[in-house]
Amino acid sequence: METLIAYFETIPSSHRSIILISGITFFWLLEYGVPLFKFNYKKFKHARPNIFFTLTTIIVNFVLAFILLKTSDWVVVHNFGVLQWLEMPLWATILVGLLLLDLIGAWLAHWVQHKIKPLWMFHLIHHTDNHVDTTTANRHHPGESVVRFVFTTLGVFIGGVPIGIVLLYQSLSVVFSQFNHANIKLPKKLDTVISWIIVSPDMHKVHHHYVLPYTDTNYGNIFSVWDRFFGTFSKMRNEDLIYGVDTYPDVDSNTHIGKLLKIPFSRYRAPKGAKFEQ
Ligand SMILES: [Zn+2]
After folding, report:
1. 112 C-alpha to ligand 1 centroid (Å)
2. Distance from the alpha carbon of residue 233 to the mean position of ligand 1, in angstroms
């Protein structure tokens, strides 16, 4: 356990890139073998904007990384935050650290983006994908990447999380997100069983259904406990799923990088189900 944390404390950027690329490659191949939907799409062409937004996400996080490092150093030196206040064995410290980062840095960050209109305008880009697959995982507008970074930093601050656990969480987060976005079909029983602990592919797909109220459910990233706890857990049959957002139905525009980048600065379109106060 100590070795694991020691490794993540100093994980080289190259190793983080290998994790990301291996994950995409693994699930990409699995999508050929056990697809959930037989999409009538060009897989490589569809991946282009998603890879672009994955790269901008990496750049944003790389540029801001020093803030995360400084915050983590500060909480450890000043003995501040939940993990610093609790005396726990290492395994429990890691588990609680991962849970807290998942709650504040991912679940809360995601929930807030569905509830605050200007933030939703950035998060929309993620939801406009009409063919959700493993490449959709990091399809985030650079503005959304900044929002998520702020919440991750907040999670590190409140949680008092040492950098080894932060980087372990981020590496796990990449792979889990690729897994639950992947266009793969697990045996229904298996999907249901794992959804009691982690966000399963079927669970997250509901979040990508094109209309409310489903869009506003299943916000979880790694652990499914937060949606169950906050009452935002929902189920839907796979065969009833329609990916995308009702307000952005044009499939061609939804693969156009320039148009996607401009969405947050365009006029707000009200969804069919009332989502925000007009
Ligand atoms: Zn969302």
Report:
1. 10
2. 13
Residues 270 and 278: their CA atoms lie apart, in Å, by 8
Q: Report the domain count for the chain.
A: 1
Whole-number Å distance, alpha carbon 207 to ligand 1 midpoint, is: 7
In a domain, 192, yes or no: no
Distance in Å, CA 229 to ligand 1 centroid? 18
Tell me the CA–centroid distance for residue 5 and ligand 1, in Å: 30
- Nearest 5 degrees, angle CA 182-CA 184-CA 186? 125
- pLDDT (tens digit per residue) in 40-80: 889 999 999 999 999 999 999 999 999 999 999 999 999 99
Does residue 60 form part of some domain?
A: yes
**Structural domain harbouring 89:** 2-186
188 pLDDT higher than 50: yes
Read off the pTM.
0.92
Residue 250 domain-assigned?
Answer: no
* Residue 159 in tokens: 């949680």
**Residue 273 predicted with pLDDT over 80:** no
Residue the block writes with tokens 């950098």:
163
